[in-house]
């Protein structure tokens, strides 16, 4: 730029021409009634303001856009210095719908257009986004949906002297949700052998009081409810909380924040890969930007559209250990380090198949060699999903120690039953700190 940004009145002021042209826009000056009138053309907007004035007007170019003119209040009036017009950077950001942040360590203002960034990222992932669209319910305003989850877990501990021991647990969950809220009832029931082992563990931890501790843990696991709103407000209930508080119908209140609330609903909506990655970026950190873009590049190197081959309507992707490490060739790792890292894997392969409608099947096999006292292990996983329904099976085998197995199914349907958006009438809502320190 021909002029440098500066801080004036506690606000970051920038030379408007340099900023607008960097964003692909144009600046036009007019002189009328001895006042400098400035017009900006950026994307679909024309933004008009006067030097020394306190407001600007944003107009959408074109006809029948349905978007009304918007008057924008400036927290610091534009001024002329050294022949350049200076404007508050926050005004430009908010006029264009960008997030604006301030990185104090670098004395840098950051303008982040998440929507534009998401669109740019999504150009690389049309196949993965087809899968995303297929797995989402595509929630409609005014409709309610239900997800039923069933699963079981088994853990076998190897014992060559006394015989192997296996512990099991069954999981059930019912989730109700719409575009504004979600609520769920969950239960985890342990097998008799798992209960016996839990009692032994708690007896060693709590002594004579272990029975009370065990009963409370089981009550929590077997009877849980969760409520979450899109604004990020949440509540949690378990029967054990009543005993802990000495009252009935106790709920813990949690404020998770609007950003987290939005992300929590992406599972059931058609959230693209670009949208998820863009939402995860911190808008007030220069270093975070570099890390975020590196994550995008890694995703592209493994799952970008050009990594798939398509035959008869089915697109197939295979990732081997060489593919995994190719990304790091230019990241400063020596060949010796690369060879050592590769040697840790005895087997590594991910295969993904995507059909024409976005239904997907994924198979993962990963086996590591024993190293530095860490036993070798093997993970296998199969995932199938289509039209919001999913089935997962997974096995983890740790050499000479044990094996764990997980199966999980999820089915979706519409329902007339609405989710809770707050605890029921008569509930006692407490802060977590209040419950722990009565």
Describe the structure.
The protein is an alpha+beta fold. It is built from 13 helices and 25 strands. The strands form 4 sheets. The chain has a 14-stranded mixed sheet. It has a 5-stranded antiparallel sheet with strand order 3-4-5-6-7. Helix 3 packs antiparallel against helix 9, helix 5 packs across helix 6 and helix 6 (210-222) crosses helix 7 (239-245). The mean pLDDT is 86.
Q: Could you write a compact summary of the structure shown?
A:
This protein has 13 helices and 25 strands.
- Give start-end ranges of low-pLDDT stretches: none
Strand content: 35-45%
Quickly count the helices. Answer: 13
Task: Please give the share of residues in helix.
Answer: 25-40%
Distance between the termini: 60 Å
Task: Calculate the mean pLDDT score and round it.
Answer: 86
Oligomer status: single chain
Class derived from helix and strand content: alpha+beta
Based on CA inertia axes, which overall geometry fits? globular
Number of strands: 25
The strand line-up of the biggest sheet is 18-19-20-21-22-23-24-12-13-14-15-16-17-25
Rg, please? 28 Å
Task: Sketch the major β-sheet.
Answer: 14 strands, mixed
């Amino acid at each position: 730029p021909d002029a440098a940004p500066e801080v004036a009145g506690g606000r970051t002021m920038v030379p408007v021409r340099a900023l607008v042209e960097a964003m692909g826009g144009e600046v036009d000056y007019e002189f009328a009634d001895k006042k400098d009138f400035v017009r900006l053309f950026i994307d679909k907007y024309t933004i008009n303001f006067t030097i020394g004035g306190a407001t600007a007007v944003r107009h959408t170019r074109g006809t029948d856009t349905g978007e009304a003119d918007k008057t924008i209040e400036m927290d610091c009036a534009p001024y002329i210095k050294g022949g350049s017009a200076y404007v508050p950077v926050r005004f430009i950001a908010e006029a264009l719908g960008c997030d604006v942040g301030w990185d104090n360590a670098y004395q840098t203002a950051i303008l982040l257009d998440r929507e534009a960034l998401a669109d740019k990222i999504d150009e690389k992932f049309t196949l993965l986004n087809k899968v995303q669209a297929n797995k989402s319910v595509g929630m409609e305003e005014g409709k309610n949906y239900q997800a039923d989850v069933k699963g079981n877990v088994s853990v076998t501990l190897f014992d060559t002297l006394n015989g192997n021991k296996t512990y099991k647990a069954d999981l059930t969950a019912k989730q109700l949700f719409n575009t504004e809220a979600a609520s769920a009832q969950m239960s985890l029931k342990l097998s008799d052998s798992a209960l016996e082992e839990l009692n032994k563990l708690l007896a060693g931890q709590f002594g004579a009081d272990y029975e009370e501790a065990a009963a409370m843990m089981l009550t929590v696991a077997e009877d849980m409810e969760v409520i979450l709103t899109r604004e990020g407000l949440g509540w949690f209930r378990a029967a054990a909380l009543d005993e802990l508080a000495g009252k009935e119908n106790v709920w813990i209140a949690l404020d998770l924040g609007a950003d987290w609330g939005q992300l929590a609903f992406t599972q059931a909506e058609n959230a693209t890969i670009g949208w998820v990655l863009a939402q995860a970026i911190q808008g007030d950190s220069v270093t975070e930007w570099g890390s975020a873009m590196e994550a995008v590049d890694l995703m592209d190197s493994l799952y970008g559209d050009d990594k798939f081959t398509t035959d008869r309507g089915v697109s197939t992707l295979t990732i081997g250990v060489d593919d995994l490490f190719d990304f790091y060739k230019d990241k400063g790792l020596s060949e010796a380090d690369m060879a050592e890292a590769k040697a840790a894997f005895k087997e590594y392969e991910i295969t993904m198949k995507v059909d024409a409608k976005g239904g997907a099947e994924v198979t993962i096999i990963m086996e590591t060699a024993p190293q530095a006292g860490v036993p070798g292990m093997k993970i296998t996983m199969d995932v199938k999903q289509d039209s919001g329904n999913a089935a997962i099976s997974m096995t983890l085998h740790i050499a000479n120690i044990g094996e764990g197995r997980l199966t999980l199914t999820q089915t979706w349907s519409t329902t007339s039953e609405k989710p809770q958006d707050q605890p029921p009438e008569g509930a006692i809502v407490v802060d977590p700190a209040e419950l722990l320190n009565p």
